[in-house]
Amino acid sequence: SPYELLQKETRDHVRKAATNKLVAGCQEVDTAHGITLKLSILKRGISLLLDVTIDDQKLAVHFDALQKEIGPSRLGEFHYIPLLFHEAEKLNRKHKTLLEMHSCILGDIQGRQPQAGILIHGRECSITKFKLNSGDKSTRRALQEIKEIQNTGIAPILMLNRHCQICEFCQRCHIEATAKDDLTHL
Q1: Torsion angle of alpha carbons 150, 154, 159, 161, nearest 10°?
Q2: d(Cα 164, Cα 171) in Å, to the nearest integer?
């Protein structure tokens, strides 16, 4: 749909502009792009890691960026905080929740929970720093539920909604609903 194309275009613009803004603040030799994260890479102390994936066989998570901060951790006298790029002009609770989940995952790896996360958002790439509570029980519970769902191998229940047209899985769900002759397809 035209709305979906506009949203994708905005998302791509924000991702590119945010990356350029961050790289301009670091020396090119002090950044890394498109890596699968391992503890050994984190221990190198690279200032900015862009387009990072953490895959521990139970859960794969994509981070838009990780930024080095001063403070002791399992890595040394530094640790990383998560950065999230988003096309939204106005922020809401889900952005902070996602940063808290990223912080929780990252904290388990580096031995220190990040106390802050950064959201770069909107067409102007506004920067908002959040104080995070990644040790929150609800964040840990949500991550555990995600892992349990993944371990069971049971696919989520198919339910087509009005907002499906803007979802990245729209075509896949539509094909599945048609094949099953699902009532939500109506």
Answers
A1: 10
A2: 9
User: What's the CA gap between 72 and 131, in Å, rounded?
Assistant: 18
* In the block, residue with structure tokens 């920067």: 127
Residues 107 and 145: beta-carbon distance below 8 Å: no
DSSP string of 134-149, one letter each residue: TT-HHHHHHHHHHHHH
CA distance 41 to 60: 17
Q: Which candidate, 54, 79, 64, 76, places its Cα nearest to that of 14?
A: 64
How many CA atoms within 13 Å lie on the side-chain side of 175? 4
pTM of the predicted model, to two decimals? 0.77
DSSP string, 40-88: HHHHTT-SEEEEEEEE-SS-EEEEEEEEEEEEEETTEEEEEEEEEEE--
Q: Which amino acid is at 131?
A: K
Query: What CA–CA distance (Å, rounded) separates 86 from 66?
Result: 15
Tokens of 79: 């640790």
Q: Each residue of 101-124: pLDDT tens digit?
A: 899 889 988 999 999 999 999 988
Taking phi over 0 as left and psi of -120 to 50 as alpha, with beta for the rest, 131 belongs to beta
